[in-house]
Amino acid sequence: MPPVIFASEAYQSRSLPLSAQNIVNAFVEQEHPEAKGQLPIFGAPGLTLQATCGSGQIRGGYVALGVAYFVSGADFYSVVGSVATRLNGAVSIPGSGPVSISDNGSQICIVNGAEGFIYTFAGGSFVQITDMNFHPANTVTYFDTYFVFDKVGTNEFFISAPNDGTMYDGNAFASAEAESDLTTGVIVNLELLFIFGQKHIELWYDAGTTDFPFQRYAGGVISRGCVSPYTIVREDDAIFFLCADGRFYRIQGSTPIPISTPPIENLIATANDLTTAFCFTYTLQGHKMVHLTIPSISVSLVWDIQSSRWHQRESLDATGNSLGRWRGNAVAQLPNQIMIGDYNTGKIMLLDWNNWTELGNPMQMSVTSVPIHSDKKRVFISRLEFDFEQGVGTTLGQGQDPVVMLDISKDGGRTWTLLEPWRQLGKIG
Fold first, then answer.
1. What pLDDT score does 2 carry?
2. Rounded distance, CA 204 to CA 214, Å?
3. 196-217: pLDDT as tens digits
4. CA 179, CA 106: separation in Å to the nearest integer?
5. What is the 3-state secondary structure (H, E, C) of the chain?
6. 287-294 vs 20-24, strand pairing mode
7. Given pLDDT bands bounded at 50, 70 and 90, which one contains residue 420?
8. CA atoms of 355 and 169, how far apart (whole Å)
9. 292, 280 in Cβ contact below 8 A?
10. Which residues pair with 338 in a beta bridge?
11. 1-13 pLDDT, tens per residue?
């Protein structure tokens, strides 16, 4: 039998005999045609403790002027090396859900869906926005000297004064009126302001007009809506978001392109609440990863732009029980450092290729193959050969003696054998 591509992505169909394949805590890399394998599977890096930002879950991460910042519970921290410094004084950031963060070069703005906060680099002051013309907002973005916000519960968006996130004009707002829905979020890409609604998206540009600087492009309307404002992210000169139709989209220029597959959409459809879903992105050695976590079904899905394929991330507790989703909740990326914020503690972790654990908890990589058949007929397999890289792992502790286990299903992935043969991959040296 010719070589079989064992698995290439997370593509578990609602009919398992059709496709039960899945990739968890690993990703595929498209190789050169002359390479030994075209779609090798690499395990994901582990998580090593970098710093601790109090005890609250990490609700958001951001990088400004070369420094990483995180919202942990009700507090705001900077992280330099392994030192975390609390910056918000007596001011608290209420809530437990995600926050949206942006900066204008001299200030950082944070919104939590109800209040807004400003941290000023010069002097290090942290204040709540008290201007009467500021309104509850789910998202904030920066565009041409202005902070721009969606206005919760309306079809409007509004802006700050130029270069000052503490000052607002009651007339500095506009409405997204192409369709009758509410705004859910805002983001800037390629010098265009994207106003997301529940059923549509509008594209605005900086016209430089006196009363209100932004105007809508004629015909700049996309008939797709966003179900959760915290899924709106920018990466690779494109915008990604979870649509109200249950599909995950990439907006390239002004064209919405669905990138979720039917199995991914089937999984998304099992969630009874998509409004709490959120995304973050980072670049892992050329792989631009777009993470989508859906807390209501405790699942983390990852779109790898480099390979245009999906995989899943999953964390285990100290005893090896699955948490369902990945523990990563937010990210701040510096050169050669990808900082991941924990979902239920104030810990900041580094993605670490030399760590085979997540803060000491075991990591389990799982790969489920495509159905192996011959012209849709059963085949008898007398010999199965896997090509692993050997002599990897650690010199001591978890990972010093790597092992692999094979499980077999003869009914298309519905049930599995109890044989589970284990084999050693070989220690270093």
1. 59
2. 6
3. 999 999 999 999 998 899 999 9
4. 36
5. CCCCCCCCCCEECCCCCCCEEEEECEEECCCCCCCCCCCCEEECCEEEEEEECCCCCEEEEEEECCEEEEEECCEEEEEECCEEEECCCCCCCCCCCCCEEEECCCEEEEECCCCEEEEECCCCEEEECCCCCCCCCCCEEEECCEEEEECCCCCEEEEEECCEEEEEEEEEEEECCCCCCCEEEEEEECCEEEEEECCCEEEEEECCCCCCCEEEEEEEEECCCECCHHHCEEECCEEEEEECCCCEEEEECCEEEECCCHHHHHHHCCCCCCCCCEEEEEEECCEEEEEEEEHHHCEEEEEECCCCEEEEECCECCCCCECCCCCEEEEEEECCEEEEEECCCCEEEEEECCCCEECCEECCCEEECCCCCECCECCCCCCCCCCCCCCCCCCCCCCCCCEEECCCCCCCCCCCCCCCCEEECCCCC
6. unpaired
7. confident
8. 51
9. no
10. 333
11. 556 678 889 988 8
The residue assigned the tokens 């595929």 is 28
Q: Which residues contact 359 (CB under 8 A, 6 or more apart)?
A: 47, 48, 49, 347, 349
Grade residue 372 by pLDDT with cuts at 50, 70 and 90: confident
Distance CA 87, CA 77 (A): 6
> What pLDDT was estimated at residue 3?
65
Q: How many residues does the chain have?
A: 429
Task: Return the C-alpha torsion angle 194, 250, 297, 407, nearest 10.
Answer: -160
**The model scores a pTM over 0.85:** yes
Q: What is the pLDDT of residue 8?
A: 86
